[in-house]
Amino acid sequence: MFTFTAPDGTELACHVRGSGPPLICLPGGPMRASEYLGDLGGLTAHRTLYLLDLRGTGDSAVPADAATYRCDRQVADVEALRAHLNLDRMDVLAHSAGCNLAVLHAARHPERIARLVLVTSAQRALGLRATPDDRRAAAQLRRHEPWFEAAYAEYEKFLAGRDDADYSLYDAFFYGRWDERARAHAARADVQSNEDAEVRYAAEGAYDPPATRAALSRLHAPVLLLAGEVDGGPRPELVHRAAKCYPRGRVEVQPGAAHYPWLDDAEFFVARVAEFLAA
To answer: Full-prediction pTM beyond 0.90?
Structure first.
């Protein structure tokens, strides 16, 4: 791990794993410490992962101004990491809500992106969001699972906006295999997340979808959008819509995967991502 200083003086931490060409990794959550990304299913065999702890998460410092948790204001942090690593252009992988940050950075600094991998993201920055019906439809694909009935009852509470839903049950829908490894991964979410930052991440003014879409017309880097076949947020159909916003965007749908595809089938995930980055 090393630290560097953001333009506003906040000390940010970046964890380094693996070997090979650098790959900047932006976590989702939103505002979940990068620890949950692990080695991305073994992608460390192909790339050196630079896993950024976003401000106020993991080993990064809490900023003096909480308003800087807003997604668009963290673009400068990503650019500061690039400059710290002395990279003229960089490959970037982002997951879930972190893809919004990656997209805003690419829109603002298209010349700095070599290749971009966006993993299971609806991309609110582009004006695209998974609806409750999207999530219900994806959940119904899991009806054969032994845990489905109890989990779906709690999921419906969550989708209805109720605060009494037991997320420890409906977390199952976010994993292609609800096994012990998935349960352990899900159990760490609370301690890895900054709730105040999560609320502020998409605060008013964070996103301007028409402007971002227009700016992305200048992004000439190849973009891989990886969707999980049984993920509800987003479903593959929504990822295909997002891909149209990128001049060189393409979609890969991982069979049987949900929101954390490197846990569901590491071999598939690593093969597709490594091949894209090496092309």
So the answer is: yes
